[in-house]
Amino acid sequence: xxxxxxxxxxxxxxxxxxxxxxxxxxxxxxxxxxxxxxxxxxxxxxxxxxxxxxxxxxxxxxx
Length: 63
Known about the structure:
The protein contains 2 helices and 2 strands.
């Protein structure tokens, strides 16, 4: 039994180097971002924008 058996075949594909690449469908089923920089992360843009906003909000706000 492979560790990939627990995943739906539409949840991932293998890269030419043999890495498991999770699809956007899998990420949406999981329901949250793991912060690992996944190639097909549906939250990627939202997370990048949030980081920019946090930097802007914290810039010059020293107590």
